[in-house]
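Service request form, structural biology core

Requester: graduate student, group of Dr. S.
Request type: structure prediction, single chain
Budget code: on file
Notes: please return the result as C-alpha cells.

Sequence provided:
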Amino acid sequence: METELLQNMLDQLHREFSKLKSIDEDLRERLEQIMVDMEVLLDEYQNNETFLGDGLIKKIKNLVDDFEKSHPRMTKSLSEIADSLSRMGI
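Core staff response, request fulfilled:
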C-alpha cells in the first residue's frame, strides 16, 4: 500500500516536472537525481532489500526550500513524498 501511494506520487512528480517551462539547471539536475533515487528506493523496498535512502529525505527537503517560491506545485508534491518516506521509516 505505501509503495503504491509513493509510486503514484512519483508519477505525479514526473508529470509536473515535464510541464515545467523554466527551471534553473542545477534544480533540474537535483530533481532528476531525486526521482532516480526514489525509483531505486521503491524497487529495493518492494524487493524487501535494505535501503536507507542515502539522505533522500534531506535532499528532498532542501529541494523543497529551493522550489518553494518559483514552483509551488512541485513543492507540494515533493513535501508529500518526503512525508510518505518518513512514515515508511526511510
